[in-house]
Each structure stands twice: as structure tokens, then as C-alpha cells.
Design goal:
282 residues, three-stranded antiparallel β-sheet, single chain, Rossmann fold, globular, Pantoate--beta-alanine Ligase, Chain: A,domain 2, alpha/beta, 38% helix, binds pantoate
């Protein structure tokens, strides 16, 4: 595996591949890789002859009171895991090269609407930071395909919209959420949980699964279902941020015609913000 830290070397390497007419798959990450990330890499390998993974903890997508400094960095373990999977290039750019004119002068990519609702309402500027870095990384790597986890369902929709709106020449692939044996969605932030919090963390998934089962068994009193799940989470020690039932295709409020739905949830356990979602067809 080639480890590249500067953009010019990445472009030179990329050019040699283009000559060979390789299909190039890209998996952008912020590192601290877990089985969820590795599943993205395995999917990428199925579709392409060259796989590029990036590790970059993107300051632009963190709010001022968020965990940018504390975000777990486990580079040595990450390198070993990617090497073992046969990744071709690990791209680890520096913030000074990515944001060479400084964060405050950076040109932004903003996907309106989708970026302001749900998680975007709780984390203003977050999806602008995500869209901007993903756009920049796409420009550097120039992949034919890119892979993202469905755990960040709204992020995936924002990126798909950006690719469509900016006529980018690549396909975006969502990969189902990888879960621990007790149902907790894998996330780098799970490492922040205390032993006690870790025990109750799977309840987030249990509650959205309960809502999904209730809907599938015919209930349509969505507000009551959400209120009940919020109450259960609060009683268990969570501070719920939101539980939303939306159209899985538009992320808008569910209308009569919508058949593909998604339940999205975010809740704090102490300082740790957990998110999860579940798609369902009715
Ligand atoms: O999902 C993530 O890890 C990040 O939001 C991403 C897509 C790598 C952009 O920094």
C-alpha cells in the first residue's frame, strides 16, 4: 500500500492508473477505522481495480463546541487494517494543504435544504463542511465510484445531491450499517462511552426498531410512537436530540404517497452524540 500525504503525488499516481484504464474506487474516512469502514473498503474492492482510502479529520465539519480535538486518531492500526485488505493508496493530506487559504477564506460547497434539516438543524454548518471536503477529495482522487456508510444516512443523501447538482462524473454507493452483536451501530464515537453508557447505548437502535415494527404492523400514529421512544430513551439516561420519520428518498416529512421511509435518530449519552437510522418499506 502506497501512503501519500501530498496532493501532487496523489495526482501523479492517479495519472498512471488512468493510463491503464483502471476503475478507481474511493472510501473517504476520518480514520479510527472499525468494521463499518472496513466493510466499505471490501465493497469498494469488489467494484474496482484500484482502491483509495483517505484519512482526514476534517475541521470544517466540526462545530466550535464539538469533539475535533478529542476525535480518536489511531493511524498505526488503521494503516495495518488497510494494508491487510489490499488497499492501493492511503491518502492522508495535511489540513494546511487542504485548506491552504485558511478555513475562514475557504470556498464552500453547500447543498441547500437537505443540509439544514434533521442533523443539520442540530449541527449548523456540519453538512457544508462535509460537502466541501468530499468535493475537494473527489477533485483530488477523481474516483469512478465512492463508498459511504448508510449509518450517516443524511450525509449520504447530501453527497448524492451534490454529485447530481454539480454534474460530477462518479457513482455514489451506500453500504448498510455494520452493527455490534447487541445492535449498536458501529461508530468511532462509541469509544467515548463509559462502561455503563455502553450497556444502554443499544437502546437507540431498539427504540427505532420498535417504531419500525409498529409501523409495519399498521400503526400510523407517528407522533405518539416517536413520543413514546423519546420517553423511553430519556428514562434510560439518554438526552434525545431528535427522532424523525421521513421519506427515504427526499428526507422530507412523510406524505401519503411515500412507501420508502427512514427513521432517523440522534441522542446524547453524556457528551457522546449517537446517531442511527432504519429504513423500511410500507
Ligand atoms: O463520514 C465521515 O467519516 C466523514 O464525514 C467524511 C465523509 C469522511 C468527510 O469528512
Amino acid at each position: 500500500m502506497q501512503i501519500i500525504t501530498d496532493i501532487n503525488t496523489l495526482r501523479l499516481t492517479r495519472r498512471t492508473w488512468q493510463a491503464g484504464k483502471d476503475l478507481i474506487a474511493f472510501v473517504p474516512t476520518m480514520g479510527n477505522l472499525h468494521q463499518g469502514h472496513l466493510k466499505l473498503v471490501k465493497e469498494a474492492k469488489k467494484h474496482a481495480s484500484k482502491v483509495v482510502v483517505s484519512i482526514f479529520v476534517n475541521p470544517l465539519q466540526f462545530g466550535p463546541d464539538e469533539d475535533l480535538d478529542a476525535y480518536p486518531r489511531t493511524l498505526e492500526e488503521d494503516k495495518q487494517a488497510l494494508e491487510a485488505l489490499g488497499v492501493d493508496v492511503l491518502f492522508m493530506p495535511q489540513a494546511k494543504d487542504i485548506y491552504s487559504r485558511g478555513l475562514e477564506h475557504q470556498t464552500f460547497v453547500e447543498v441547500p435544504g437537505l443540509s439544514y434539516m434533521i442533523c443539520g438543524a442540530s449541527r449548523p454548518g456540519h453538512f457544508r463542511g462535509v460537502a466541501t471536503i468530499v468535493c475537494k477529495l473527489f477533485n483530488m482522487v477523481q474516483p469512478n465510484l465512492a463508498f459511504f456508510g448508510e449509518k450517516d444516512f443524511q450525509q449520504l443523501q447530501v453527497i448524492k445531491a451534490m454529485v447530481t447538482d454539480l454534474s460530477m462524473n462518479l457513482s455514489i454507493h451506500g453500504v448498510p450499517t455494520e452493527r455490534e452483536s447487541d445492535g449498536l451501530a458501529m461508530s468511532s464515537r462509541n469509544g467515548y462511552l463509559t462502561e455503563q453508557q455502553r450497556k444502554i447505548a443499544p437502546m437507540l437502535y431498539q427504540q427505532i426498531s420498535w417504531i419500525a415494527d409498529a409501523i409495519l404492523s399498521g400503526r400510523r400514529d407517528f407522533s405518539a410512537l416517536v413520543a413514546n421512544a423519546n420517553k423511553n430513551l430519556a428514562e434510560a439516561g439518554f438526552k434525545p436530540d431528535y427522532i424523525e420519520l421521513r421519506s427515504a428518498t427526499t428526507l422530507l416529512q412523510v406524505g401519503h404517497e411515500d412507501k420508502q421511509l427512514v427513521i432517523l435518530a440522534a441522542a446524547f449519552l453524556g457528551k457522546t452524540r449517537l446517531i442511527d437510522n432504519l429504513q423500511l418499506s410500507i
